[in-house]
Amino acid sequence: MGLMLPPGGRISGARLARLLGSWRRGGARQGSADLAAALKLLVADGRLPVGTRLPSERELTDALPVSRTTITSALDQLRTEGVVESRRGAGSWINGPVGAGGGITGGDDTLIDLSRAAPPALPSVRLAMDVALGQMPEHLASHGYDERGLLVLRQRIADRYAARGLPTSADQIVVTSGAQHAWALVLRLFVGPGDRVLVEQPSYPNALEAVRASFGIPVPVPMLSDGWDVDGFEAALRQAGPRLAYLIPDFQNPTGLRMSSESREALAAVLRKARTPLVVDETLVELALDGAEAPLPMAAFGEDSVVTLGSASKSHWGGLRIGWIRASADIVHRLLSTRAAIDLGTPVFEQLVLAALLENPEPVLRQRRAEALEQRDVAVAALREHCPQWSFIVPAGGLGVWCTLDGPVSTRIAVVAQNHGLRLVPGPRFAVHGGCEQMLRVPYTQSSEVLREAIARLGVVAATVAGTGFPADADLAVPVA
């Protein structure tokens, strides 16, 4: 018996065709498996939410350069997998997330997920949980709400900034439920409908989506191959008049680049002159892998006009869902006055866990960096072996390699990769208005064994897309540890 039709918006055939992008492998063969894989990728990325009503097969035939038979076969496959549901007279709609009914993530132990640049927890997190559990009784007698965050955690976060050369008090810190939550709070404070927000191109996809969700308009400034284009930012500030700027100066996601002290000083001066507040995302700042001396935090160059976002998700574990904001006392006061409309504070237990981890942070961070360094080197060696036609700069930190492909085939690679047990995020997801079709991020957050297997599969996918004779349905279902 079919499920009840859920509420949801309808997507037109023309818009769906734009979202699909260059999904075909090329050549004469344009099969239904390609189309089904491309649609599943849109569902997995959240660009086709559950409940979205799909165009009719006739409308899709007009919008896509394929036959109606191909479209019918693709939808039949998605119905079998539980991704799409249909009913006579009501049409078809997205029934559930990919994997919920046997899609690309459900129950398949051969799938390797390279869509998230996020490592698993270190053993120290489990030990910190034991410490936090012992501290919980003293907090249970209180109401448990604290819009600023626990003082002990705010002080240890402030101490970490001081250790990096940026004197900070606990009163300048607001604890949040992750850096994405912190970014949403800042956007709520600074950005109104139609306001422009200056961003790097490429940039972190979820940060761009948060700008759009706040009804702001992201304005991209292209990155240079070796860093930030200060002149380009200055021109964009004059032309666009943005309300806010958002940058990732430390191991930028996805490029892995780190801004030099000279560029920080120059860019901060440009933003001060334009009176544009700057939001700096330091989610990856603790993951320096090359041993080079770190520049001062961006806030050291921008004074009170810089708001800094931090997170424990990459350095410790994403499951903690703890982030923070560092800002001037005035901005902190304004943030707190608006926070109650969104939430009433961050969970106490998770704050105590991170406070325990930050009591003596360096041993834990050294272990995380050593693990990331080993995995980066494995990924780099595997890419050079299996994808020698691609180029990249070996990142000095962060959690991913930003590869330049041998053609504008990123979306096609992400689509075909699903047939080989790989989940990837195509390059255009990191761009504001599309583009980056010649780029692909390869995270190195899996174990060394899994990374070698994943990139070996990726090499087969690249050859498949290039049309060198590898069948897209090749049997690569090798169990992965």
Short description:
With 481 residues, this protein is an alpha/beta fold.
Low-confidence stretches: 1-7, 99-108, 468-481
* CATH homologous superfamily placement of the largest domain: Type I PLP-dependent aspartate aminotransferase-like (Major domain)
- What is the number of beta strands? 13
What overall form do the CA principal axes indicate?
A: globular
Spatial separation of the terminal alpha carbons: 37 Å
Helical run tally? 18
Radius of gyration: 23 Å
Structural class: alpha/beta
Q: How is the largest sheet built, in terms of strand order? A: 4-10-9-8-7-5-6
Helix percent reads 40-55%
Q: In the CATH scheme, what's the topology name of the largest domain?
A: Aspartate Aminotransferase, domain 2
Integer average pLDDT: 89
What is the makeup of the main sheet?
7 strands, mixed
Query: Proportion of β residues?
Result: 5-15%
How many structurally independent domains?
Answer: 3
- CATH architecture group name of the largest domain: 3-Layer(aba) Sandwich
CATH class annotation of the largest domain: Alpha Beta
InterPro entries: Aminotransferase_I/II_large, HTH_trans_reg/aminotransferase, PyrdxlP-dep_Trfase, PyrdxlP-dep_Trfase_major, PyrdxlP-dep_Trfase_small, Tscrpt_reg_HTH_GntR, WH-like_DNA-bd_sf, WH_DNA-bd_sf
Family: In the C-terminal section; belongs to the class-I pyridoxal-phosphate-dependent aminotransferase family.
GO molecular function: DNA binding; DNA-binding transcription factor activity; pyridoxal phosphate binding; transaminase activity
Domain HTH gntR-type: 29-97
